[in-house]
Amino acid sequence: MKVIDKEALLDTFQYFDKHIVVEIIDIFIREHAERLEKINQAIAKKDFQTLKFESHSLKGIIANFVAEEPKKIAYELEEKGGANDPTDLKPLFERLQTSVAALVEDLNEIRAEFIE
Question: For residues 25 and 22, what is the distance between their CA atoms, to the nearest angstrom?
Protein backbone atom coordinates (compact mmCIF):
# COMPACT_ATOMS: atom_id res chain seq x y z
CA MET A 1 0.00 0.00 0.00
CA LYS A 2 1.48 3.33 -1.09
CA VAL A 3 0.73 6.28 1.16
CA ILE A 4 3.15 8.91 -0.15
CA ASP A 5 2.31 11.18 -3.06
CA LYS A 6 5.79 10.70 -4.50
CA GLU A 7 5.50 13.44 -7.11
CA ALA A 8 4.46 15.98 -4.47
CA LEU A 9 7.20 14.75 -2.13
CA LEU A 10 9.87 15.17 -4.80
CA ASP A 11 8.50 18.62 -5.55
CA THR A 12 8.66 19.53 -1.86
CA PHE A 13 12.28 18.42 -1.54
CA GLN A 14 13.49 19.46 -5.00
CA TYR A 15 15.81 22.17 -3.67
CA PHE A 16 17.34 20.03 -0.93
CA ASP A 17 20.60 18.15 -1.35
CA LYS A 18 19.97 14.42 -1.62
CA HIS A 19 21.93 13.68 1.57
CA ILE A 20 19.66 16.05 3.53
CA VAL A 21 16.55 14.28 2.22
CA VAL A 22 18.08 10.94 3.21
CA GLU A 23 18.89 12.33 6.66
CA ILE A 24 15.29 13.57 7.13
CA ILE A 25 13.99 10.15 6.10
CA ASP A 26 16.46 8.38 8.39
CA ILE A 27 15.43 10.49 11.39
CA PHE A 28 11.76 9.63 10.85
CA ILE A 29 12.50 5.93 10.39
CA ARG A 30 14.64 5.92 13.54
CA GLU A 31 12.13 7.84 15.69
CA HIS A 32 8.69 6.73 14.47
CA ALA A 33 8.40 3.71 16.79
CA GLU A 34 9.10 5.84 19.87
CA ARG A 35 6.57 8.44 18.73
CA LEU A 36 3.93 5.76 18.19
CA GLU A 37 4.67 4.30 21.61
CA LYS A 38 4.13 7.70 23.26
CA ILE A 39 0.73 7.91 21.58
CA ASN A 40 -0.10 4.36 22.63
CA GLN A 41 0.87 5.08 26.25
CA ALA A 42 -1.21 8.26 26.25
CA ILE A 43 -4.20 6.24 25.04
CA ALA A 44 -3.62 3.57 27.71
CA LYS A 45 -3.40 6.21 30.45
CA LYS A 46 -6.23 8.30 29.00
CA ASP A 47 -3.76 11.19 29.01
CA PHE A 48 -5.58 13.33 26.49
CA GLN A 49 -3.17 16.27 26.68
CA THR A 50 -0.23 14.05 25.76
CA LEU A 51 -2.32 12.29 23.10
CA LYS A 52 -3.11 15.66 21.52
CA PHE A 53 0.50 16.86 21.69
CA GLU A 54 2.15 13.68 20.41
CA SER A 55 -0.42 13.15 17.65
CA HIS A 56 -0.03 16.76 16.54
CA SER A 57 3.73 16.39 16.47
CA LEU A 58 3.59 13.17 14.45
CA LYS A 59 1.04 14.70 12.07
CA GLY A 60 3.39 17.59 11.37
CA ILE A 61 6.30 15.32 10.59
CA ILE A 62 4.18 13.09 8.36
CA ALA A 63 2.93 16.15 6.48
CA ASN A 64 6.50 16.73 5.28
CA PHE A 65 6.30 13.42 3.43
CA VAL A 66 2.99 14.22 1.70
CA ALA A 67 1.31 11.14 3.15
CA GLU A 68 -2.37 12.02 3.56
CA GLU A 69 -3.69 8.81 5.14
CA PRO A 70 -1.39 8.63 8.18
CA LYS A 71 -1.59 12.42 8.53
CA LYS A 72 -5.40 12.24 8.62
CA ILE A 73 -5.39 9.47 11.25
CA ALA A 74 -2.90 11.39 13.42
CA TYR A 75 -5.18 14.42 13.09
CA GLU A 76 -8.18 12.37 14.24
CA LEU A 77 -6.22 11.25 17.31
CA GLU A 78 -5.11 14.82 17.96
CA GLU A 79 -8.73 16.00 17.82
CA LYS A 80 -9.86 13.23 20.18
CA GLY A 81 -7.11 14.26 22.59
CA GLY A 82 -8.23 17.87 22.43
CA ALA A 83 -11.85 16.87 23.06
CA ASN A 84 -11.03 14.33 25.81
CA ASP A 85 -12.88 11.81 23.65
CA PRO A 86 -11.97 8.19 24.48
CA THR A 87 -14.10 6.58 21.75
CA ASP A 88 -12.40 4.39 19.16
CA LEU A 89 -8.87 5.31 20.23
CA LYS A 90 -7.52 1.75 19.98
CA PRO A 91 -8.86 1.11 16.44
CA LEU A 92 -7.63 4.52 15.33
CA PHE A 93 -4.21 3.82 16.81
CA GLU A 94 -4.08 0.43 15.04
CA ARG A 95 -4.91 2.16 11.75
CA LEU A 96 -2.18 4.70 12.45
CA GLN A 97 0.36 1.93 13.09
CA THR A 98 -0.53 0.20 9.82
CA SER A 99 -0.46 3.44 7.87
CA VAL A 100 2.86 4.55 9.38
CA ALA A 101 4.34 1.11 8.56
CA ALA A 102 3.31 1.67 4.93
CA LEU A 103 4.85 5.15 5.10
CA VAL A 104 8.14 3.68 6.33
CA GLU A 105 8.11 1.19 3.42
CA ASP A 106 7.55 4.03 0.96
CA LEU A 107 10.31 6.08 2.58
CA ASN A 108 12.75 3.19 2.38
CA GLU A 109 12.06 2.89 -1.35
CA ILE A 110 12.51 6.62 -1.90
CA ARG A 111 15.63 6.62 0.26
CA ALA A 112 17.15 3.86 -1.90
CA GLU A 113 16.53 5.99 -5.01
CA PHE A 114 18.26 8.98 -3.41
CA ILE A 115 21.42 7.07 -2.49
CA GLU A 116 21.90 5.41 -5.89
Answer: 5
The answer to the question of residue 1 being in a domain is: no
Its domain, for residue 51, covers 6-115
pLDDT tens per residue, range 59-68: 999 999 999 9
Q: Is residue 31 part of a domain?
A: yes
Percentages helix, strand, coil for the chain (3-state, rounded to 5) are 80, 0, 20
pLDDT in tens, 8-54: 999 988 899 999 999 999 999 999 999 999 999 999 999 999 999 99
Total count of domains within the chain = 1
The CATH number of the domain holding residue 84 is 1.20.120
Handedness of CA 74, 57, 90, 75 (dihedral sign): negative
